Amino acid sequence: MHRVGLSVPRIDPFDQYIEIMQTAGNALREKFGGDYLAGKIIEQIFKFREKNGGFDGKISIPGRRAYIIDSLKNTDELQLLRKIYGETLCILGVFAPDSIRKSRLTDNGIPHAQIDKIIDRDQGELATFGQKTRKIFVHSDFFVCNDQRKEELRNRVDRNLSLIFDTDIHTPTRAESAMYKASAAAANSACMSRQVGASIVSKDGELIAVGWNDVPRFGGGLYTEDDRSFLNKSTGKLSDRDNRCFKWGGCICHNETRRQSMVSDVVKRVSEAGILKKGVKESDVIKALRGTDIDSLIEFSRSIHAEMEAILSVAREGKNSLVGATLYTNTYPCHNCARHIVAAGISSVVYIEPYLKSLATKLHYDAITEEPNDETKVVFRQYDGVAPHTYLRLFRPEAERKLSGKRALKDPAAALPIFRIQLDAQADYESKVIADLSDKEHTPISAN
């Protein structure tokens, strides 16, 4: 911290301690680069291994040792650690319901007026070198709910370790299977803004629908890759009827184009009415309007949302009821989808990535809640389990499950992770990062 003119603060008062540490992290990233603190972590791991006999000459000695990093705050930090350690880096996305998080901060003596400020800053700042926990969280390999149930928390952590070391046979939970299907459905989307997938599971646990965001097609459903080679029955020839946005109507995002047009129109009218101060350019006003609620408008898109497509697919089939069902999606539903979810009779929604543009709980707080134990409303809750991108690697281990016709048993005390890399190459990469750190720390910072 001395490199940015700060010293380690006292723990008490805790809110000031948090604020100073957040500010210090930002200052270090701004001065030395977004991945600077990750580089310092790598340096500490290298030195610890070196000090404790982890090398034979320059060759790394394999050992059963794990290094625990308390937290990451910026996406550049995650990228560097992934680059160096590859699949051996396991990211745990630990979370708790909002009410519990606030209660814990209160118990630590933080004034109520400061709690929202601390949480909001931690989740995401506009500056590229700022706190961006929210963006890192969605790249977790495991999502773990840290609520008040300590025994359940221990069981979940033990299961995750068992999966990593393949010491027992585990199959996906209902939630893990449903979220994987939602994530797989998202791969069908050709939307240029974001790929969203959804799956719906009945109250009996059966998969009844999947959906993704894309442009609706005449006859029902959405355009897909198959529409590029569609057999025209009237001509008997293959034709391309794929009219998704990336190849239709100028290949533009129509929602974004419409928003920009609205802003330009408003500024133009204000200018023509003589309301703008003398010397103020229209371009300056347009720039000032960036980040306002106009940027949150989503109704001008040609695509139907994943949650809506999943609901409509049930209507097209006419075979299942949505009452009491659970919807899984990789992204928090927008307020438009949310109201249809309520009307459809779905009882709960499970999501991974927050969606800040959504006004679901503000517009429908009478019917939607994020409190997990409220049975009088549709509960929106954070996903807890194996991340979809880790699903196949963990549930399809290469190791044999049986030996001589019986279940093969592994000794947890000797088991190795199923994710491995070449240790010698890892040490070389670490050395390069450390050398780069030294250059940064001893290079004078330009006044510009």
UniProtKB/TrEMBL annotation:
Pfam families: dCMP_cyt_deam_1 (PF00383)
Domain of life (superkingdom): Bacteria
GO cellular component: cytoplasm
Coiled coil: none
InterPro entries given in the database record: APOBEC/CMP_deaminase_Zn-bd (IPR016192), CMP_dCMP_dom (IPR002125), Cytidine_deaminase-like (IPR016193), dCMP_deaminase-rel (IPR015517), P-loop_NTPase (IPR027417)
PROSITE patterns: CYT_DCMP_DEAMINASES_1 (PS00903), CYT_DCMP_DEAMINASES_2 (PS51747)
Name of protein: Deoxycytidylate deaminase
Organism for this UniProt entry: Bosea lathyri
